[in-house]
Fold each of these.
Amino acid sequence: MPDELDIRTTIGDLLDSQTERYADREALVHVETGTRYTYLEFKDECDRVARGLMALGIEKGQHVGIWVTNYTEWVVAQFATAKIGAVLVTVNPSYRTHELEYVLKQSEANALILIGKFRTSDYVAMTNEVVPELKDSTPGELKCSNLPFLRNVVYIPSPSEPGASAPDGMWSWEDVRRKSAEVSETDLAQRQASCDPDDTINIQYTSGTTGNPKGAMLTHYNLVANGYYSGEGMKFTEEDRLCIPVPFYHCFGCVLSNLACVSHGSTMVIPSEYFEPLKALEAIQQEKCTALHGVPTMFIAQLGQDRFSEFDLSSLRTGMMAGSPCPIEVMRQVVDQMGASEITIAYGQTEASPVITLTRTEDTLERRVSTVGTVLPNVEVKLVDPETGADTPVGEQGELLSRSFMVMKGYYNLPDATASAIDKDGWLHTGDLATVDKDGYYRITGRLKDMIIRGGENVYPREVEEFLYTHPKVADVQVIGVPDERFVEEVMAWVMLKPGETADEEEIREYCKGKIAHYKIPRYVKMATEFPMTVTGKIQKFKMREVAIEELGLQKAAGIETA
């Protein structure tokens, strides 16, 4: 197991050093496809794809978007791009055309890796809509007026059609693998050696209060350190096997899962392309997983399966629950019914790579169900009065600020947003309210930021509001979060129509379909004639929430206690 000094390294060098230690141990298993790699086999595949990407002309520092569900190729691409110093831009598979275009343009992406279809999403069709020049282009020679940086698009066929040819204008994944022969191992080694732990290697998009998503620039050191310390919190060793149903595009998947495993020689077990409760349970049983990750809604879904009692989960020891507040009762059920007696809870945000605080396996159950733990090693946290900036005493609520080498470099091409998030002294302002007890255990008590967390997905009302403003009948709109027993929060829109116009809830929701991610589409729509306001005209969203709870009968959901 690497010592603490080893974490100041690049992701490529981390994989190489761990391969030397654990060459014959399993690195990755994709249960749904039957794919299995030892660490040596996984490293070899990553090297092959890395050389193939170099052959496409992808240079150090260029940006490679990845719009892929939980395929094996996603993990390979994560390490392959890191080895050549290309910046991986993670794209949420739920994104539609409007969001895809924004991310590709804002990130100045030079390449895009995508799959064909997933559920109702046709990625090829959406890409052709955003990049109309693609289908008439030679692979690698794309020239798009709207996306001037984009040159290469790489297509990964679905497991049901292996070897399928790529659509017009695109490389196939197999093309990339074959082109590896054009680049020597020496050339790859030289490229990898040119990478520095402080280089940006990942841009993770997180929605912002000003509307559009912001790309957090994260370094090798950010991610390796956070993955390592998270694995330490769960006491990972090379004997551990982690079931990963959480999405790779999110830090939960690519950092707290993949890098936590690789930094400890543990095994990454991917149950399926996307989260399916039964497949996750089957994977735990089949692969004898010792750890399980998930947002609370995932654990709730697994516990609620009719066949839950059929599965042998006796191998489970630990894991992590994160992404949104965890209902205390759910945490108890995970311990009692799933047997994960050392389950942990993490708190953080993408801008912090992401974990800031974490409960430990040795913490009492009470602390693990009622707090978000203590700070990671080498991380500073303080609570301040949001109005004055003064430190708040133990036990009193304040905004949580964090400072460490794991804080992002900033938001890509957004200096003003960066300055708003990270002050001149290097403190990241999380926008979350918290208390801390005398023993250093934190409890999240609320949010300054106007953010909705729906099943682990961050939804910023301003982004949804700005989209709904594009509806020709909408005069004004306010979006709030309302309590939900399954997802913790759901999205609700209060809509005021233009004079003389008529529309109902379904029309508003239908307008959103195919244009914004499904989790951002309001579950509830209230056709309103006015909004609660102060005498100075400031919208009172807390009063809107109170009205919604009463009108929708959400009192029970509103009373759920969380850590």
Amino acid sequence: MMIDARSLPADEVLKTQVCIIGAGPAGITLAREFINQKFQVCLLESGGLEFDPELQSLCDAIVVGDPYPVVRETRRRQFGGTSHTWEGQNGYQEFGFRCLPLDEIDFEQRDWLPYSGWPFKRDHLDPFYQRAQQVCQIGPYAYKAEDWEDKRAVRLPFKSDRITTSMSQYASREPFTQEYREEIKRASNITTVFYATVVAIETNDSLQTVTRLKVTSPKNNPFTVTARVVILATGGMENARLLLASNQQQPAGLGNQNDVVGRFFMDRPILKARLVPYNRKIFDQTALYDIYPTKGVPVMARVRLSDATLRQERLMNNGAQLFPRPLAHQREATLALRSLIGSLRRGKPPATLLHQAGSVVRGLDYVAMAGFWSAVRKIPALRRGDWSYLPYEKRRFSEFEVFYQIEQAPDPNNRIQLGADRDRFGQPMTEIHWRINPIDVDHAVRVQEIWAEEFAKAGLGDYQFARTKEEWKFEKPAMHHHMGTTRMHHDPKQGVVDANCKVHGISNLFIAGSSVFPTSGYSNPTLTIIALSLRLADHVKTLMQ
């Protein structure tokens, strides 16, 4: 059943047994696990089935520190949550998200990385990762290069074991944006309430049990939800904000008796570097590093340092993707032509018309070639993969742009706080304090030094990169992977939730999503979010027996 909260009478009380706050990938995964269980579930979603620009303004935030993407563009108030923004290419003009598990080293207590270590090892999470593969509707739980190599696509021939190749799989966003909502709609024991924004979580006088949720809608008709178990699944920023804003009984915020809520905020900057090939044969050796259906599954390889090298060098985790590119003036010509066409369509010739036209002329040979291959790609029989499957297309490339995704060190000063400004519901807006710290820079530089050495030893090319933060060029200053703000730790002084994702000191409040990550690794977080949600669902089922 689905309900529009705008139609509820003011002061209505909705009673359920399990309440999930947030219908993004974590909340959807939890709800699906509860289908046909012997308890009632209420799924609260702040948005609706369709995108609402006015509600999206609730995602606005203030940023203090280093440059950060426009925050409202990193999240989505809508059933399906941030899955609507996933833009990973999982087929020709088909979009989704990148899937891969965290590495074994990500779970370890690393003495060179303060605040590192999860309450369990990777092998504990492996069964849930396997189930997450099915939720994401992708291939087998296989992420070694040898699982996907074939005659067409093999690993680059590095000369040492310092550098290795790992794999990622690509999944469609459609299950989370479309398919799963129909499953949940048909479930007799689940009620989904749209346009329901939780503004406060209230507890009993001892602060040990959640008693009710205060909820409102755009119609300003406040109502209440009561539940035996409450699961907060609103994302890496919003989870912390709601706890901090629930401060009527605990002034510092719910679960924040040790001033940990909101701290240790992590994201993943993506740096840009260049690999200038020694020989053009490399473009025929890198098909595995393209997004291409292999054994029916879109996969893509990336380069990383081995766990042994990370331990020996005392470095944070890392990963790099290779994207073939033309020469700089050829890329400039392509961008100039796109700009000119856009301006002419709008009927407003740009002030830099002559300059842009000159750029097009200088790179006209490449522009013509790129246009030809763009037309070829529109042939239905050839709508596959990205760049590697058409043999002659590779001739238009001259170098590789390298996107380097770094692990960011947990830092208590990188945090989510309540700002002075308020949103349309009168709630304090999110204030993000975020910086790339010297430890992040130093580790990123050393990792790339090793890459440069190994690319050169293998005769592959000259790896060129910036060695200071001031010189860094970003593909994205952050990846919209909001992590760590309600981190998992057995010690309440160092974490917000325990190993079961239960908030310390509160018997019936749990948190799902990347906010519980103690460390970030370099892997995209969605597969781990879903694995942890499946694990949490199993735990809640035992509590409800």
